């Protein structure tokens, strides 16, 4: 009989066309028009979408302006911080147990953060980790204080049956294979199913299934890898407001309390601000983003520029400084605190000209790949790819990616690094920011909200992910993420490398004229206002990626035998 994963892949193969052009596109994609012959493409909604507004009786939300006319947009957000923890018990009213299912990138961080917050509040709500009894993660959970003796480390099915909030944080492929048969039947009536990724909805809709109607279905999706969620929470114990932003969604509200539960969850794990999305928008933007500028694109950019600079006469150490170090140092640190446009505005006239030439050359090739990625995610193809890999994982586990010459040189450079001497290379900045802006524009054209766009394309890159690459290299960044993200980064990084080398860098070599219209659009892009607003909401401290922590991010947990 065919395996569960194989049946999943067959189902998705049969329905991917329907998924692409029917019910799984994000809000704002209309699919009732045809264009020339048999080429069927969705018509995109205008970027100035309606506001994302939510209601809460427990917390004090704010309404902020994220863009000016003609794309004027207001959205609701909820500010977090340790001073809001006292409201979590009210949001979780009636709960006795929270079950954290799995131990991948997010579960160790969210499980520990929730446990610590509830302990600080003196709450009697128990946070329990549920794992397969044969799971190699059992020992990892025990290392941070979850034990069989006190009932906080139990078999997966027991945790699901007994928990009021079931945080399903197993791999996406496992969710697709197991949810309907091994998980949903065990959920209590009136329980809340908690997700940190909308992937499961995409899969269920593609096979014509729905969530059980007698449960809440909510999402809290931190905009950063799990270890960064834990590390900033730990820093927040001494500096209020340190944490990783989260989106939240209420897909199904069976009890009337789903919104409060989701917001309480976001506050309890330390999110400095929380914004609303939908499960559909989250999985489209998240899977897309990690294949783009968050992981895959930045990896491809570094590899290509490193080779290019060496070919132009730089030493390997200089080439790494002007490619990778320039991105993870002054470029992303400026974006984090002052916005994208400030990187350009701080340059002198000569460097601005180099930036403009690189931006003009890189934008279209990068957007070409990014548009393809979005189509692959939206259509269900990328989801199917992840699930099929799950069926091959035992035979072909994910390999390491930091053994090449680029990253060996990087380790030598980091050992001798002087932060103040890292150069801001204008060509590197032009290529990196062109790719970031192209990613932003694809999401805007697809109708995503500004809070989601900025968090998935800017904040997660500069405040969560690039600091990890700055600390220990590409593997430390990529392989502390989910399996879905790790697969996507490896798949798409070579595409960015190739496209930029074949098109963008060829244009630079041929002194192709600067596209002044494109530069004007960059300067006037409405997203700069949204980034400016989000910069005011950023964590109050920079993440510490190498100090003492229970984040379990040294990769021995990722590549354990």
Query: What is the percent of helical residues?
Result: 40-55%
Outline the biggest β-sheet: 10 strands, mixed
- The shape is globular
Strand content: 5-15%
Number of helices: 22
Give, in spatial order, the strands making up the sheet with the most strands: 3-4-12-11-10-9-8-5-6-7
- Rg over CA atoms: 23 Å
Structural class: alpha/beta
> Average pLDDT across residues?
88
- Low-confidence residue ranges: 1-51
Q: Count all strands and give the number.
A: 12
C-alpha end-to-end distance? 29 Å
Describe the model.
The protein is α/β, with parallel strands linked by helices and about 550 residues long. The chain has helices spanning about 5-20, 90, 105-120, 135-145, 155-160, 170-185, 200-205, 225-235, 260-270, 280-290, 295-310, 315-340, 340-345, 350-380, 380-390, 405-415, 425-445, 450-470, 475-480, 485-510, 515-525, 525-535, and strands at about 30, 45, 60-65, 75-80, 95-100, 125-130, 155, 165-170, 190-195, 215-220, 245-250, 275. The strands form two sheets. Strands 3-4-12-11-10-9-8-5-6-7 form a ten-stranded mixed β-sheet, with helices on both faces. A two-stranded antiparallel ribbon has the order 1-2.
Keywords:
single chain, 561 residues, alpha/beta, ten-stranded mixed sheet, two-stranded antiparallel sheet, 22 helices, 10% strand, globular
Helices, strands, pairings?
Layout: H1 4-21, E1 29-30, E2 43-44, E3 62-67, E4 73-79, H2 88-91, E5 97-101, H3 107-121, E6 126-131, H4 137-143, E7 153-155, H5 156-162, E8 165-168, H6 172-183, E9 192-195, H7 199-206, E10 216-222, H8 226-236, E11 246-252, H9 258-268, E12 273-276, H10 279-291, H11 296-311, H12 316-338, H13 340-345, H14 349-379, H15 381-392, H16 405-415, H17 426-445, H18 450-472, H19 474-478, H20 483-509, H21 516-524, H22 527-535
Parallel strand pairs: 5-6, 5-8, 6-7, 8-9, 9-10, 11-12
Antiparallel strand pairs: 1-2, 3-4, 4-12, 10-11
Helix pairs in contact: 1-7, 1-15, 3-8, 6-7, 6-15, 10-14, 10-18, 11-12, 11-17, 11-20, 12-16, 12-18, 14-17, 14-20, 17-18, 18-22
């Amino acid at each position: 009989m065919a395996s569960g994963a194989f049946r999943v892949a067959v189902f998705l193969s049969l329905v991917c066309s329907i998924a692409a052009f029917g019910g799984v596109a994000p809000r704002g994609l209309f699919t009732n028009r045809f264009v020339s012959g048999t080429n069927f493409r969705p018509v995109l909604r205008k970027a100035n979408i309606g506001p994302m507004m939510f209601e809460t009786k427990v917390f004090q939300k704010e309404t902020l302006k994220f863009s000016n006319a003609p794309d004027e947009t207001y959205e609701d957000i909820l500010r977090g911080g340790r001073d809001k923890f006292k409201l979590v018990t009210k949001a979780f009213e009636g709960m006795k147990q929270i079950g954290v299912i799995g131990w991948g990138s997010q579960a160790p961080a969210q499980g520990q953060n929730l446990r610590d917050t509830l302990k600080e509040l003196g709450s009697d709500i128990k946070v329990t980790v549920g794992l397969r009894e044969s799971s190699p993660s059992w020992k990892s959970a025990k290392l941070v204080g979850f034990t069989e003796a006190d009932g906080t480390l139990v078999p997966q099915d027991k945790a699901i049956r007994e928990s009021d909030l079931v945080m399903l944080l197993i791999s996406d492929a496992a969710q697709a294979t197991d949810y309907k048969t091994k998980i949903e039947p065990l959920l209590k009536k009136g329980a809340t199913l908690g997700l940190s990724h909308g992937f499961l909805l995409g899969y269920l809709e593609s096979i014509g299934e729905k969530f059980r109607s007698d449960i809440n279905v909510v999402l809290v999706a931190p905009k950063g890898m799990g270890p960064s969620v834990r590390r900033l929470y730990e820093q927040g114990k001494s500096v209020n407001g340190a944490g990783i932003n989260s989106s939240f969604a209420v897909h199904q509200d069976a009890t009337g309390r789903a919104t409060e539960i989701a917001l309480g969850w976001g506050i309890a794990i330390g999110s400095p601000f929380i914004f609303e999305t939908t499960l559909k928008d989250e999985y489209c933007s998240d899977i897309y983003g990690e294949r783009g500028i968050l992981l895959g694109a930045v990896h491809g950019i570094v590899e290509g520029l490193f080779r290019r600079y060496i070919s132009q006469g730089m030493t390997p150490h200089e080439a790494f400084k002007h490619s990778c170090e320039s991105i993870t140092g002054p470029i992303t640190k400026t974006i984090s605190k002052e916005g994208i446009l400030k990187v350009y505005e701080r340059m002198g006239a000569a460097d601005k000209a180099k930036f403009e030439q690189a931006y003009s050359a890189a934008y279209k090739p990068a957007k070409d790949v990014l548009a393809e990625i979005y189509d692959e995610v939206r259509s269900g193809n990328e989801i199917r790819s992840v699930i099929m890999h799950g069926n091959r994982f035992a035979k072909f586990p994910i390999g390491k990616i930091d053994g090449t010459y680029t990253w060996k040189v990087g380790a030598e450079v980091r050992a001798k690094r002087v932060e103040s001497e890292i150069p801001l290379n204008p060509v590197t900045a032009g290529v990196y920011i062109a790719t970031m802006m192209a990613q932003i524009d694809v999401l805007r054209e697809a109708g995503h909200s500004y809070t989601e766009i900025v968090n998935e394309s800017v904040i997660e890159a500069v405040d969560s992910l690039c600091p990890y690459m700055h600390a220990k290299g590409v593997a430390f960044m990529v392989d502390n993420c989910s399996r879905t993200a790790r697969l996507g980064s490896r798949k798409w990084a070579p595409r960015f490398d190739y496209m930029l080398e074949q098109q963008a860098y060829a244009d630079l070599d041929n002194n192709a004229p600067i596209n002044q219209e494109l530069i004007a659009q960059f300067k006037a892009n409405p997203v700069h206002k949204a980034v400016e607003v989000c910069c005011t909401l950023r964590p109050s401290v920079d993440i510490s990626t190498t100090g003492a922590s229970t984040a379990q991010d040294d990769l021995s947990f990722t590549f354990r035998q």
